[in-house]
Design a protein that fits this description.
Layout lengths: L6 H24 L2 H4 L4 E6 L2 E6 L6 H10 L1 H4 L16 H16 L7 E4 L2 E12 L4 E8 L8 H15 L5 E7 L3 H10 L2 E12 L2 E11 L8 H12 L27 E5 L8 H17 L4 E6 L2 H7 L4 E4 L11 H9 L1 H32 L23 E4 L2 E4 L4 H16 L4 E8 L5 H10 L5 E4 L5 H7 L7 E3 L4 H7 L8 E5 L10 H18 L3 E3 L8 H10 L15 H8 L2 E6 L2 H9 L4 E5 L2 H14 L3 E5 L5 H51 L38
Parallel strand pairs: 5-6, 9-10, 9-12, 10-11, 12-14, 13-14, 14-15, 15-16, 17-18, 17-19, 19-20, 20-21
Antiparallel strand pairs: 1-2, 2-3, 3-4, 4-5, 6-8, 7-8
Helix pairs in contact: 6-7, 6-8, 8-22, 9-16, 10-11, 10-12, 13-14, 16-20, 17-18, 17-22, 20-21
């Protein structure tokens, strides 16, 4: 007979079903780590702080919740998806449930759950799950408080766990599935000596969607003598300064790492793409590059190869000119240098560029005269003995050789390409870290240049490309391992984005590039001018003539005639305006019509669509690469095709009508490129710091050396570096 259940009966049923849970709670509270969880790992000293890995306790709930809620932005996007909110996933009940389940898994020898404790404070977790003692395998997951970023705490902790798994648990293979895009975790896995073995499509539901995961693994035979933890500790002790004991971990700033040469200062030699400093696009990349280097290494000496030393001092006071004439050694700062910095480019520039132009013309005329004399009388001009400068003397004690972005690595500029290869090859021979950032590559078909590039480029530590269409394929043909490359975008995007305005512009910008690598017929030039003047009048826009290259006034001579006779012309910028000044002028435009690549960069990074004018394969590649990086916003017009008037008109009208619609997308793509570019620089920093302060033979897990190991990833470290989060299948 069915009837109401008495309170006594209900209490008995609950006691029966909850008996095991209460038993586990009481046991967990009463017993020590060593008796229930298999002991603890450590303590060890990391960067002056005591690191211990131990079993989780019920009393850790408050600290665990505080850290995880604070670190939500760093962890949640890499963590397994849950219908609960992040706060709901971090209650006392959730922690108790996790601890009890983890304890059951540990007692069954299927898991090794551990808390990372630094100076007595919970700083993360490092778990070994899915343990199969028969197969000898296990899967590692880890997350860290970003307060401890870049102190190698995560890698030391992971090293301790791997050592324990191999020596005590008898495992042979430890894996770590890392979500695509989790750059910090991937970089930590690489530093640990793991290899990337492949991609697992849709492996876990992470951050709200099924995500691909890269499978990283390390086997027992790859553990160095003395263990992984010893290697990580040695690296950490050499990289990090000891923090004062009175400094709170939460308030501690990231320590400055200063790899030093024999003279005690880090020295960076930058191969600038344009030695005369007459191109605002190259100047923008240089400004961003120097800013990032200076932020990381405030006391570094940053040298830039140039033909105009005083002009460099005027436009970039944070850099030192390394002259391409003479020995090319580090300069001695004197009265002239200080004066150049004080008076600025508008005063120094005319004299510097005037001298270079005169020398260039004199060289051309003297060469022609010498040939004429030898042809007529058989005797030429007396030859001045010049010792060629293969590489500058400044490379003797350089900490890094950095080839800055540009489009010079192509058939159109073999001289600069070979000069860059000289520098990079010499750096490699001396064991100096050598990298290329923000590079545009190709078209490259010259047999001599291709052979030389195939010999040098595969030996570089890292190559960051500004586009992903032709650069990666070219590097692959040259034998460069994909693990050493990354597509980061143009570094000038950051400067362009900073010049953006909230209000959509109302003017039409225009620039035409005419050069031997960008030929434009006179009739074509007249057609471009006629179309932009007509359309500007139709839409009631002002015309904004824009200049990127001041080299022999090539952009001025080609662009200013296009706007002549128009009623509403914005005055052209001065010759020595800053790149920021050019980007600010671009910001007033609704649409930009340009034959200059970097004006397109400035416009797209502010959300302004571009009509790209091209007459060569070289510029086809530039503008198509830009369109690919920004996901649209570029209307390409070939200047050598028929019906040019109609094609340009249609492109401008199309860009004008879509200006408000594409603005948000273009800016989002700009932000993504800025972030990726910064991550590329983080990889450069890590290469330098590791080479100078960690050392070790190639292939050693504690080093990122000249030769990358097979299976390493092309991912780069995020800003938080050791603040990694590898998603596990635990609910918390």
């Amino acid at each position: 007979m069915n009837g109401p259940i008495s309170s006594q009966t209900l209490a008995a049923v609950l006691r029966f079903h909850l008996r095991s849970a209460w038993y586990d709670v009481g046991r967990a509270v009463r017993t020590s780590d060593s008796r229930t969880w298999g002991g603890r790992l450590g303590p060890v000293d990391v960067a002056g702080h005591q690191l211990i890995l131990r079993s989780p306790r019920l009393g850790d709930a408050a600290q665990w919740r505080e850290v995880r809620l604070r670190e939500q932005a760093h962890i949640e996007r890499w963590w397994t998806t849950s219908p609960l909110s992040w706060a709901e996933r971090h209650t006392d009940v959730q922690w108790v449930s996790y601890v009890l389940e983890a304890r059951r898994q540990a007692r069954a020898k299927r898991a090794l759950p551990l808390v990372i404790e630094l100076d007595g404070q919970l700083a993360g977790q490092c778990n070994l799950e899915g343990i199969d003692p028969v197969a000898g395998i296990g899967e590692m997951g880890i997350w860290m408080d970003s307060t401890w970023a870049r102190q190698r705490v995560a890698t030391v902790a992971a090293g301790l766990v791997v050592d324990h798994a191999v020596t005590e648990l008898g495992l042979h293979r430890i894996t770590a599935p890392i979500c695509e895009g989790n750059i910090a975790a991937a970089w930590g896995a690489r530093r640990l000596g793991m290899l990337r073995e492949g991609v697992m499509e849709g492996f876990l539901n992470v951050g709200g969607a099924r995500q691909n995961h890269h499978l990283w693994a390390i086997t027992a035979n790859r553990i160095p003598p003395g263990g992984l933890a010893s290697a990580m500790l040695e690296a950490a002790s050499r990289v990090h300064r000891r923090q004062p004991a009175s400094v709170s971990p939460v308030s501690r700033r990231r320590p400055q790492v200063t790899p030093a040469d024999a003279n005690g200062a880090i020295r960076v030699v930058i191969q600038n793409g344009e030695y005369w400093l007459c191109n605002h696009g190259d100047a923008a990349m240089l400004e961003v590059t120097i800013r990032r280097l200076r932020e990381r290494w405030p006391d570094a000496r940053i040298g830039v190869l140039t033909s105009a030393p005083n002009l460099l001092r005027a436009v970039e006071p944070g850099a030192e000119p390394i002259s391409d004439r003479g020995t090319g050694d580090w300069p001695v700062t004197g009265v002239t240098a200080r004066l150049a910095q004080r008076v600025g480019a508008r005063v120094v520039g005319p004299a510097a560029i005037g001298r270079l132009t005169a020398m260039d013309l004199l060289g051309q005329y003297s060469g022609r005269l010498d040939q004429a004399l030898r042809r007529v009388v058989g005797v030429g001009l007396p030859r001045r003995q010049v010792v060629p400068q293969d590489v500058p003397a400044a490379l003797r004690n350089a900490s890094l050789v950095l080839a800055m972005g540009g489009g010079y690595f192509a058939d159109v500029d073999p001289e600069q390409a070979h000069r860059t290869l000289d520098l990079l090859e010499h750096a490699g021979d001396r064991g100096i870290p050598a990298v290329m950032v923000g590079q545009g590559l190709g078209p490259l078909e010259d047999a001599t240049l291709v052979a030389r590039a195939a010999r040098v480029l595969p030996q570089l530590d890292f190559i960051a490309l500004r586009e992903g269409l032709q650069g990666p394929e070219l590097l692959s043909r040259l034998g460069v391992a994909v693990e050493r490359t990354s597509v980061t975008g143009d570094d000038a995007v950051e400067l362009g984005y900073e010049a953006r305005q909230e209000q959509v512009g109302s003017d039409l910008g225009v620039c035409l590039r005419i050069a031997d690598y960008s030929p434009v017929a006179t009739q074509t030039k007249e057609t471009v001018g006629r179309v932009v003047r007509r359309i500007a009048g139709e839409v009631g826009a002002g015309l904004v003539p824009l200049i990127i290259s001041e080299y022999r006034s090539e952009d001025r001579r080609a662009t200013l005639p296009l706007v002549e006779g128009f009623a509403n012309i914005v005055p052209p910028p001065g010759r020595y305006v800053t790149p920021r000044g050019v980007a600010a002028r671009v910001s007033r435009c609704r649409v930009l019509v340009t034959g200059a690549y970097h004006l397109g960069v400035f416009a797209l990074s502010q959300g302004i669509p571009v009509v790209g004018l091209t007459s060569s394969r070289y510029y086809d590649g530039k503008f198509l690469g830009l369109r690919d990086m920004f996901g649209g916003g570029v209307h390409l017009v070939r200047l050598d095709e028929p019906d040019l008037d109609e094609r340009i008109s249609s492109a401008i009208h199309g860009a004008w009508s879509e200006a408000t619609d594409v603005r948000r997308l273009l800016r989002e793509r700009a932000l993504a490129q800025i972030d990726t570019s910064k991550q590329g620089f983080e990889r450069v920093f890590d290469i330098v710091e590791t080479r100078h302060l960690v050392g070790g033979a190639d292939g050693h897990p504690a080093s990122v050396g000249r030769r990358a190991r097979v299976g390493e990833t092309n991912e780069t470290p995020a800003a938080t570096d050791d603040s990694v989060a590898v998603a596990t299948r635990q609910p918390c």
